[in-house]
Design a protein that fits this description.
- By secondary structure, the chain is of the alpha+beta class.
- The protein has a domain of about 60 residues: SH3 type barrels.
- About 25% of the residues lie in helices and about 25% in strands.
- The protein has a four-stranded antiparallel beta sheet, with no helix packed on it. Strands 1-2-3 form a three-stranded antiparallel beta sheet, with no helix packed on it.
- Strand 5 and strand 6 form a beta hairpin.
- It is flat, with a radius of gyration of 47 Å.
- The two termini are about 80 Å apart.
- The mean pLDDT is about 80.
C-alpha cells in the first residue's frame, strides 16, 4: 500500500527546483571563444565601399532637399473665404412645364384570399393603404376607392371621380 504525503510549499520547491535549474543549464546558448581570430580585411574593398556609401549619401541628400520645398495648399478647410463673382449668364425665359402625372395611389395590393361560400367562390382583396390593412370584397370601400372587381391576380378600384385603377399582384 502506497502512502501519500500532502503537498506543501517545501515539497513543491523540492520537486520543481531541480527541474528549473536543469532547464536553465541546458537551454543557455554556447558562447563563442574570446580568442577567435578576426577575419582579415583587405584595403581595396574598403575603399570601394566608402566611395559607394558616399555616392548613396549624396543621392539621398539631393532627394531630401528636393522634397522639402513647401507648396501652399490649394484650399484651407479652417478658413472661410468669399467666392469669386461669376459672370452673368444669359437668362433664358422659363417655360412652364406640363403638369406632372398624379402620384401613384397610396393603395397597394398585398394578396387575394378565396373562400367557398355555399358552393360559390368568394374573393377578398387584401389591400395596404399605407396606414392600414383593408380586407375588402366587391363593392366595399378601400381608402378613397371602392372595389369594383376582384380577379385571380388583380383588383380594379374606382375613385370617386370615376377613374379606374387596376392593381396586380407582384410575383
Amino acid at each position: 500500500m502506497a502512502q501519500t504525503f500532502p503537498m506543501n510549499w517545501k515539497s513543491t520547491l523540492l520537486v520543481s527546483g531541480p527541474a528549473l535549474v536543469a532547464t536553465w543549464l541546458f537551454s543557455t546558448p554556447a558562447t563563442a571563444p574570446a580568442n577567435a581570430p578576426a577575419p582579415a580585411a583587405t584595403a581595396a574593398p574598403a575603399a570601394v565601399t566608402t566611395s559607394n556609401i558616399e555616392q548613396e549619401a549624396a543621392r539621398l541628400q539631393a532627394r531630401l532637399h528636393a522634397a522639402a520645398e513647401y507648396h501652399a495648399p490649394s484650399r484651407n478647410p479652417f478658413r472661410f473665404s468669399t467666392r469669386a463673382a461669376r459672370p452673368a449668364a444669359n437668362v433664358r425665359s422659363v417655360e412652364t412645364a406640363p403638369p406632372l402625372a398624379p402620384p401613384p395611389p397610396a393603395v397597394r395590393l398585398d394578396g387575394i384570399a378565396t373562400d367557398d361560400a355555399g358552393g360559390a367562390m368568394q374573393r377578398t382583396a387584401i389591400l395596404n393603404t399605407g396606414s392600414d390593412v383593408v380586407l375588402a370584397k366587391e363593392g366595399d370601400p378601400a381608402g378613397s376607392y371602392r372595389v369594383t372587381k376582384i380577379e385571380d391576380d388583380a383588383v380594379e378600384l374606382a375613385a370617386s371621380d370615376g377613374a379606374v385603377l387596376r392593381l396586380t399582384l407582384r410575383p
